[in-house]
Design goal:
Elements (H helix, E strand, L loop, with lengths): L11 E5 L5 H7 L4 E6 L9 E3 L12 E4 L36 H16 L5 E6 L4 H4 L5 E3 L12 E6 L15 E3 L5 E3 H4 L7 H6 L3 H11 L1
Parallel strand pairs: 1-2, 1-4, 2-3, 4-5
Antiparallel strand pairs: 5-7, 6-7, 8-9
Helix pairs in contact: 1-6
Length: 221
């Protein structure tokens, strides 16, 4: 396995926390020496490190696109922090959720992991995550994009924190897609909420849309 040494004059790109190969292959198709890295094996054949990202982050990279896990960072998971019987209490007086008593500790570790990626010794960095606690605990994102800005008729707010990179420009703005409304009146994208329960549901929801990956590679590469 390559240890990340520079090959010719190609741009060296690391796609952190990616098992799908979508972003990796978008950069590779444009001639860049690109590697994905995740604890899971890659879903598509290509240059991939199956290991802890921190073990390869110090190699000679020009650009890193990172997709850290959002389970403990996204606003959608706030419900699982608190005991369901404590809704009437102020947040600082609520007990931990009985099913997830360590969720606060898990969130802190997720925040530290995100900051570790942000502070990596790489000249250009982009980190994506859904709307969540990072906007207040860390800082607001530099940009928020949706798949419908890049040719997919779907909505999914994706925050981007950028270092030495310009905002990506929408390439093909289309319809926002269909939505569903819950009994409580909450509105969500049908493609997301309508997914059937399965072991791979989280994988489907976490994959980068091809249009966004192509825009990243075309504009940042």
């Amino acid at each position: 396995m390559s240890m990340g040494y520079r090959r010719g004059g190609d741009m060296r790109v690391l796609v952190a926390c990616e098992f799908s190969g979508v972003v990796r292959d978008a950069f590779a198709a444009r001639g860049h020496d690109t590697w994905s890295c995740d604890l899971l094996p890659t879903e598509k054949s290509g240059q991939h490190y199956q290991q802890d990202i921190m073990e390869v982050i110090g190699y000679d990279w020009d650009l890193m696109i990172a997709h850290p896990p959002c389970t403990y960072l996204a606003n959608s998971g706030v419900f699982w922090f608190y005991h369901p019987d404590d809704k009437h209490l102020p947040v600082n007086e609520r007990r931990a959720h009985p099913r997830y008593p360590d969720r606060r500790q898990d969130q802190q570790q997720a925040i530290e992991f995100f900051i570790g990626l942000h502070d990596a010794p790489i000249e250009k960095i982009a980190i994506e995550n859904p709307v969540g606690v990072l906007s207040t605990i860390f800082r607001k994102p530099d940009q928020i994009v949706h798949p419908y800005m890049f040719g997919h008729e779907m909505s999914k707010a994706t925050c981007l924190w950028l270092k030495n990179l310009p905002k990506i420009v929408p390439t093909s703005i289309v319809g926002k897609g269909d939505f569903l409304v819950s009994k409580s009146g909450k509105r969500g994208a049908k493609w997301n909420w309508g997914l059937s329960p399965s072991e791979d549901r989280w994988k489907i929801r976490s994959r980068t849309f091809q249009g966004i990956a192509d825009a990243m590679a075309g504009q940042w590469g």
